[in-house]
């Protein structure tokens, strides 16, 4: 609304702001070609492209507040409480996962080789931390699919803030006497085991390790479903994308993430339409990260031992 435009339909009538938003949402949600959408809506395909990009820019300017890390203690406590209700993981603040946005790029151009992932596709990565309501709370997008989940994480601002103690630095809980548990997120075995990022045991030998893995998996699936829902609802990133502008694509993906959260907010926390599957990366094999942190090992062991005791943790400020 802040910018004047002279977009018109095939009938010569100007397109209202509502019309323009509808065109952009159709493009992002359907993933159909510009020519198909233009034909269906009676608009020149170049107009569809311009309107969509203008919508992306407007969302970047006005919609950033829809995707943010919890800013208050009360908000974070609600997230931790809801995570614990899923399968009993106490003090958990998020679930992290990575998905590939598959592209079709010319193979004769070797400058595109950096985008070739381990499954021989050209792809761009989206890494997201998700809350129990499937909102995306932190995202990093734009890295080539050739990189591992661990490397993408280590290049994120979230990693830097967490390592510096500026994130996940809220209340600790006492699992049992002399055993505290700080705030953390969970991720699959493609991520490093850190003091603030807990991954499953690779070889769960004991009962309490198996119990930890069971609870971890049941909670981690939140991120998998969220990413599956994102790609199913905003099918422009469902892929494969034909010859995308790689400089613009991260911004389109990010705006789809904003829209994902807006839809959840409009549903008043009720996720009415869940995807048919939580497989957001079909045909991609599970990565294994060998990086472990001694403190992370201790934190995970303490938590798994706590599950064998089944006592209720107490909370105090760190």
Automatic annotation (TrEMBL):
The keyword Metal-binding is assigned to this record: yes
Cofactors, names only: a divalent metal cation
UniProt-listed InterPro entries: HARBI1-like, HARBI1_dom
Pfam families with a match to the protein in the record: DDE_Tnp_4
GO molecular function, one term: hydrolase activity
Family, per entry: Belongs to the HARBI1 family.
Record's protein name: DDE Tnp4 domain-containing protein
């Amino acid at each position: 609304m802040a910018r004047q435009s002279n977009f018109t339909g095939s009938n010569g009538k100007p397109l209202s702001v509502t019309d323009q938003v509808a065109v952009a949402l159709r493009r992002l949600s359907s993933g159909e070609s510009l020519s198909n959408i233009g034909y269906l809506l009676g608009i020149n395909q170049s107009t569809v492209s311009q309107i969509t990009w203008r919508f992306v820019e407007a969302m970047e300017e006005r919609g950033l507040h829809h995707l943010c890390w919890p800013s208050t203690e009360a908000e974070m406590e609600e997230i931790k409480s809801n995570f614990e209700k899923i399968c009993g993981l106490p003090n958990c603040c998020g679930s992290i996962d990575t998905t590939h946005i598959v592209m079709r790029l010319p193979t004769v151009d070797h400058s595109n080789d950096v985008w070739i992932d381990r499954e021989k596709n050209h792809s761009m990565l989206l890494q997201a931390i998700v809350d129990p309501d499937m909102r995306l709370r932190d995202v990093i997008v734009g890295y080539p699919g050739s990189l591992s989940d661990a490397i993408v994480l280590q290049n994120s601002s979230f990693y830097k803030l967490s390592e510096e103690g500026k994130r996940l630095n809220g209340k600790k809980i006492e699992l049992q006497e002399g055993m505290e548990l700080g705030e953390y997120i969970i991720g699959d075995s493609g991520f490093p085991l850190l003091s603030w990022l807990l991954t499953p045991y690779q070889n769960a030998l004991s009962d309490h390790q198996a119990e930890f893995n069971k609870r971890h998996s049941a909670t981690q699936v939140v991120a998998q479903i969220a990413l599956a829902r994102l790609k199913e609802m905003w099918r422009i990133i469902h892929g494969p994308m034909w010859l995308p502008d790689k400089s613009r694509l991260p911004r389109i993906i990010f705006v789809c993430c904003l829209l994902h959260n807006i839809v959840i907010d409009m549903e008043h926390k009720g996720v009415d339409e869940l995807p048919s599957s939580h497989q957001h990366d079909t045909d991609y094999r599970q990565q294994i990260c060998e990086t472990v942190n001694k403190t992370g090992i201790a934190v995970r062991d303490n938590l798994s031992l706590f599950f064998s005791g089944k006592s209720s943790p107490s909370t105090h400020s760190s």
